[in-house]
Protein 1
Amino acid sequence: MDTILKTNALVKKYGDATILKNINMTINRGDIYGFVGKNGAGKTTFMRTVLSLTNPTSGEIKLFGDKTIEEVGLRVGSLIEAPGLYKNATAYENLKRFSIIYGADEDKIPEILELVGLANTGNKKAKDFSLGMRQRLGIAIALLGDPEILLLDEPINGLDPAGIKDIRDLILKLNKEKSITFLISSHLLDELAKVVTKYGFINNGTLFEEIEAKKLLEKCKQQVIIEVDDTKKALSILETMIDKKIIKTKDNTIIIDSKEDTAFINTKLVNGGVSVSSIYNNSISLEDYVMERIGA
Amino acid sequence: MKRLVKLQLRNLFSLKSFYICSALMLLSPIINLVASLLIKKEFTATFIPEVSSLLSSTEILITVVIVLFACLDSNDGTLKNIISRGYTKKQYLLSKYIVALVATLIMYLVPIILTFVITIGNGMGFESKYIYYILAYLMQIGATICLYVVLSYIFEKIGPSMVACLIGPNIIGTALPLLQLLVKTKKINIANYWITNIAGNAIVKSPDIVNLLVVAGLSVVYIIGLLSLGLYLGKKKEVK
């Protein structure tokens, strides 16, 4: 598979604080990669580091094989934090100016403005735009020059429900029709879940899980919850039957992240001398699953 | 790089302050002429004092335009749109400097030509030293503009950059005689080598090719030194 972005042991430190800890991320062509984590987990810092807006402390960033951002920057579009706009210029003028340095076709500007819903802004200057309009203009700038990958940091911030749907549809359309790859960070998990094909979970600067969206949905479907009197003893029995990576404990409760035969587990535990007060299969929502993982 | 220069030219020509300050600069020699005629009832000024007066009285206008222009991308947050598409900070800083020079030339050239026409038209005659004088000042301006661009690049925001550019060079210019006292040498006048004095001291006293080359050399040293310093200080800076 064609790798668009790959980072190897990426580390970013600010003084004594380590913001990114050995991040190994792989994004393949066509992915819509959902980057999920709490505020301050390191999502924006990661994106800024990839885009060379801040220097990594150590590690490697490779784009389109083994290229650096300086070599392939024109193939990478981005919207990081607040959109960078010439405040005294109109939406059209903003796109015109950036089209000069992005090598974009000026004739496509009306089409892009139409695409993001800013075709009728006329002579209104960017400084007079609403938060949602600025966000849309930021996305329009990111789309200039037909980039092959788009890095969008909270792209639906400030958008109304109709705007959120527009951007979601736009992401899906660009991904499907133009094979544009996306790296999107968002707190709105439900919205993210509607477009994402792969997830990356980050917590305290550590990318601890990368998983295909389909597999994640499977995982979300079932959990086995067991309440026991002796967690330690129960764990030693369960680990002989089930991969220990999917077993977690919380006080006297054991959670197994998969669908299992509860009757069989119950028998094994009781025979092993563990008193089981309850055992049942439980479905969890994607949001609960993610929140649990990112420690929110 | 060519694209960046093109973008920066577009940014420059979008600045209202550029047009306002250019118009005020253009008015400057005309106001001088009218004021002389009204007060002294005659116009006796020669080219060099007139240009000298023009340069010092309009310096603040140039500073305002250059700082507003140089800070535009960091102030509007558009610098990240440039760097994230693969352009380097070096290319960005150079493009800013090139276009700032263009802006300065545009703003100075017409008033200087106008001053020349007024003084020559007044029967003051043309002297070859005018060429040395103009060239030396253009070189000094090139170095001073570099200082403004680099300070704006380092301070990023308009307020601190404006203060640094308006006050900084003068403070250093004032402090240098004190340094002279500390160094206790009379062989070299340190203040003469400060960026805002290199043309005046070398050329006004003795307008010849040797002094012109000295000014050229010092200007180049200042420009390279300032750009290198700016890039060094900006290297580890985050792009906001």
Note: The first helix of chain B runs from residue 2 to 13.
Protein 2
Amino acid sequence: MEYSVKENKDIESSVPLSSTEPEEWTMEIKSNPGLFDLNLKELWRYRDLISLIVKRDFVSAYKQTVLGPVWHFAEPMVTTLTYAFIFGGIANISTDGLPRILFYLSGIMLWTYFSNCLLNTSSTFNANAHIFGKVYFPRLVMPITTTISSMIALGMQFILFILLVLFYYVRGENINTNIYALLTPLLVIMIAGTGLGLGMLLSSVTNKYRDIAKLVGVSMRLLMFATPIIYPLSKVPDKYKPIIMLNPMTSIVETFRYGWLGTGSFSWNNLGYSLIFMLVSLFFGILAFNKVQKTAIDTI
Amino acid sequence: MTVVVRVENVSKKYQLGNIGTQSLKGDFNRWWARMRGKEDPFAKIGDESQHQNGEFWALKDINFEVKQGEAVGIIGKNGAGKSTLLKILSRITNPTIGNVKIKGRIASLLEVGTGFNPDLTGRDNIFLNGAILGMTKREIAAKFDEIVDFSGIEKFIDTPVKRYSSGMYVRLAFAVAAHLESEILILDEVLAVGDTEFQKKCLGKMDDVAHKQGRTILFVSHSMQAVTTLTNTCIFLKNGQLKSQGFTQEVIKGYLQSDPSALEQLIYIDSPSNLEPKVTKVEIESSESSNSQAYGKPMTILFNISTPSPIKSAALSFQVMNSMDQPVTHLLVMDSEIPIARKSGLFELQCHIPKVRLYPGNYTLKVHFADRFSKQKYQTIERICPFEVGVYGEIRDYYWGTGNAMYVEDCDWSVVCMDQYSKV
């Protein structure tokens, strides 16, 4: 009896507190925020942080190196030369009649960008565990900065690529740059979006299971061979073609080569498939990332 | 006063072993064991009330409110849930149950220099760190001069911070944080860094922020001293639950009495070393319990020293420091007066003060240990054995206002009648 009276009192005293004051809170930290509670407005407020981190990545990556940003060219160039020698010179894999350097460089730079976006994003929580554990800012900032930083590197490689295209053109090689080259910005966005989307999807798992992070690293290396990077799509036997076409990167790489170099294949259907793939992966990626970010720090 | 932070029924659950197997195999084993109705092979054994079915409740049903302009301390021993609470308030992790409502911009400082990049200059790091803490470029630019001024490293502002001394690094980092534009500031023991002078500057700045600028502060610290100086009210957490809440002095008193391990901090203990002479223990035997000393009553200070080799001319001394960290008295003992540690081993020294004349207030000890022959200073131990001098049982028609004096001299008053006026 006494107990129930006491309980009533408690309710009476606590109810007016919350109901009579129509209080305005700037922020609520909830135990179970909605799945679509993205808070993009907040992300926008942190745009300065994004630009500063991009700047930091760029500046600090080449501090105390003599060549500085030249390394951005050196790395893909070395890979390109190696591939040109091994896959072209020794294994004699066809390049659809294109100069080997151009053929491999175009594939390598696009693939490197995709792979960087995906791998860096997928390890967002583990790589930034320290900073995430000490300060709050929208976690999406980190994948976005990675994407932008890698895009800068891609941009520099792209300049190198154009110079080489000009060089071979002047030398009279069979290069037919056409109107489809204008699709390049879209292609880059598609690579970024797919890498980001898949990366975010994986980041929600890798932060709990470190095994996945290793697995992702290995699969990315293998996946490269399921993309027409070191071989043209035209040389893929018909029975394997559908499998290769499932890879969203396939049509992107092929479109890029088609636009800039004039060989390869292009179809709006295939590109449309890659676009839808990107949108779907981005959608689920953001959802998963958003869900995991709230408590990710507990699992790292 | 409006409520700016409201914590409602906040609980936080952790999986035991911190979701812990970190691998698919581990989780698979756990799942397999559960399917067969066996015990979780990764569960840790513990019988505390916080542990249930492989879960650990770091916080349970926390409710409190903070009003605008209040400075609130959060105390409790390690593992009481202080850090978890701060993490939830600063949005690093979400609560399992419950809500936190916040009015105004919130900035948290759980560490100084988060995100500092060693390769960047001081200038770049101010911007980067400021942005990480939630400021925009424009806000930082507006405060830039103030920040540099406070840090006192104008000359090196364009030097990469990896060339900084650790002190300079901390100064710069703290300077950025201290100039955050936010209505609510969350602080975690960041004051435990830097040199004493800078620490005081920081404390001063914090005090300024809390009391003059009317900002709200939530402050976690193990230093009762800092909590007392900075905060008016306190929250005491124990095993994830809110134990008491109220005026700082009272909550601290309750905390010290209820928590035997908090009392251990009243005693300085260190393990002996095979390499060098060391002070291994300093303990105050005060007239009242838990380092409370009555003014005018005797007090004894016990020192244990250990030395692996004989010391030729040992000297041990201690200063009594007041709450402003100023020395009030310096008492010393030397080998030339009484032989100390002339052979290797463990020694106990006692210093007996027959009548404590320190003015009522809070004090700590600063202990020095040296060899006067080799001119080698073994140790300086600062801010240990905090004790409080109070007036107990001394009934006098006198107001012992804080800070009126450093100590009270022994004296005898007498009144002598010199001349007598003629009858009025």
Note: The longest helix of chain B spans residues 196-212.
